[in-house]
Automatic annotation (TrEMBL):
<dbReference type="InterPro" id="IPR012338">
    <property type="entry name" value="Beta-lactam/transpept-like"/>
</dbReference>
<keyword id="KW-0378">Hydrolase</keyword>
<dbReference type="InterPro" id="IPR001466">
    <property type="entry name" value="Beta-lactam-related"/>
</dbReference>
<dbReference type="GO" id="GO:0016787">
    <property type="term" value="F:hydrolase activity"/>
</dbReference>
<feature type="domain" description="Beta-lactamase-related">
    <location>
        <begin position="20"/>
        <end position="394"/>
    </location>
</feature>
<dbReference type="Pfam" id="PF00144">
    <property type="entry name" value="Beta-lactamase"/>
</dbReference>
<dbReference type="InterPro" id="IPR052907">
    <property type="entry name" value="Beta-lactamase/esterase"/>
</dbReference>
<protein>
    <submittedName>
        <fullName>Class A beta-lactamase-related serine hydrolase</fullName>
    </submittedName>
</protein>
Length: 400
């Protein structure tokens, strides 16, 4: 089984390579890739390990990987691009263009509520299969008819999977096509980034693998590490206990939000899910392509700078009704909080989105930084998975 790290790293960013190599050396990775842009210059493009534990297939420069909820930032960008073009008003009522969505007490919902986890629809009321989840119109109709768990705009709670079919409906109704097709047509053409991947991409994509313990490390992603300077949430046993309790309680908002729709046999390796391209958690990308998405956002090549500034302005912050810890969101983008760790250098300016298992995409307009990290070994954020944080920390330190 190969664990050697390959690729390019600018000498000024050697700290990123050191962290990435240490993650492999200490058993925290199976296969992974990380890419960093400083401005338009690609300063890190590294990969290593195996793409498929079962076959031993090596991770290659063009190996794409599933990004889980990192997808949300791409979906939100598609919706924001349409608002920028005048298709709808971000702070206007959703019922103006989706009349059915006002049912059950949701008539006051705005597009901003949909984009910032304030819609009151963090989970589907009834079970949804992977096959049913391939029909975005049908899932949007379910959510339109559903009674909210709180009045839209009065609270926020992470819409782990429903987010995609709420924000995605903005795109579908105003562009006449699903999110994945819109992204490919408008700002993803030629990039190794898909929301709804063709079979040949699915075939060569990294296969996700559950963590397992090995001697001297914990392949849940935490591994053996010095926590002296870890983010406070990792040191806070009460926070971790509350997260673990919410995750395992079948009646908790968090459990209901993250487990329905269920991906079915094979989990998120299921080709049914990967073809469908769930707009909340369906992106497959290479690390350079995903980092390139953030590079282009920071440079103003996808959204106008003023649109991005408004999108990353925190709309909500504090206790999250779904995640049971503090979160902060702009319009589709996470801001630094307990579920989006950043070092001090990025606290005021970093934005992006994490994904289950440890993946992350991050941009910083002031620092000119763009970073993407995609692993196929599922980390356990409930025990303090810091792989991405350490890479981000090293990238910021390298800038200075």
């Amino acid at each position: 089984m190969s664990t050697s790290v390959q690729g390019h790293c600018d000498p000024a960013f050697a700290a990123v390579r050191e962290v990435f190599e240490r993650n492999f050396a200490e058993g925290r990775e199976l296969g992974a890739a990380v890419a960093v842009f400083a401005g338009d210059r690609k300063v890190v493009d590294l990969w290593g390990g195996v793409a498929d534990r079962r076959t031993g297939r090596e991770w290659l420069p063009d190996t794409p990987c599933f990004g889980f909820s990192c997808t949300k930032a791409v979906t939100a960008t598609a919706a924001l691009l349409l608002a920028e073009r005048g298709a709808y008003e971000v702070d206007g009522p959703v019922t103006d263009w989706w009349p059915e969505s006002g049912a059950g007490g949701k008539e006051g919902a705005t597009a901003a509520h949909l984009l910032s986890h304030q819609a009151g629809l963090p989970a589907f009321a009834d079970p949804v299969s992977a096959e049913e989840a391939a029909d975005p119109a049908a899932l949007a109709a379910r959510l339109a008819a559903q009674k909210p768990e709180w009045t839209p705009g009065e609270a926020h709670g992470y819409h782990a999977l429903t987010y995609g079919w709420l924000a995605g409906e903005i795109v579908r109704r105003h562009a006449g096509r699903p999110v994945g097709a819109f992204v490919q047509d408008e700002f993803g053409r030629g990039a190794d980034l898909w929301i709804g991947a063709p079979d040949e991409v699915i075939e060569r994509a990294a296969k996700l693998s559950a963590g397992r313990r090995v001697q001297g490390s914990d392949l849940s992603g935490r591994g053996v590490q010095d926590e002296a300077d870890s983010p406070k949430v990792v040191e806070d046993g009460d926070v971790l206990a509350r997260l673990a309790g919410a995750f395992t309680d079948p009646q908790s908002p968090m459990n209901r939000a993250v487990n329905n729709p269920h991906p079915g046999k094979g989990g998120f390796n299921n080709p049914v899910v990967l073809r469908a391209g769930w707009p909340s958690a369906g992106m497959i990308a290479t690390a350079p392509a995903f980092a390139g998405f953030y590079r282009d956002l920071v440079a103003g090549r996808i959204l106008r700078p003023e649109t991005l500034r408004d999108a990353i302005r925190p709309r909500v912050g504090g206790p999250d009704r779904t995640m049971v810890v503090d979160s902060a969101f702009g319009l589709g983008f996470m801001r630094p909080a307990q579920i989006f760790f950043t070092p001090a250098a990025g606290l005021d300016t970093a934005f992006g989105h994490t994904g289950a298992g440890g993946s992350i995409g991050l941009g910083d307009t002031e620092a000119g930084l763009a970073l993407a990290y995609l692993p196929n070994l599922m980390g356990d954020q409930l025990s303090g998975d810091l792989r991405a944080y350490r890479l981000i920390e090293a990238a910021y330190a390298s800038l200075s």
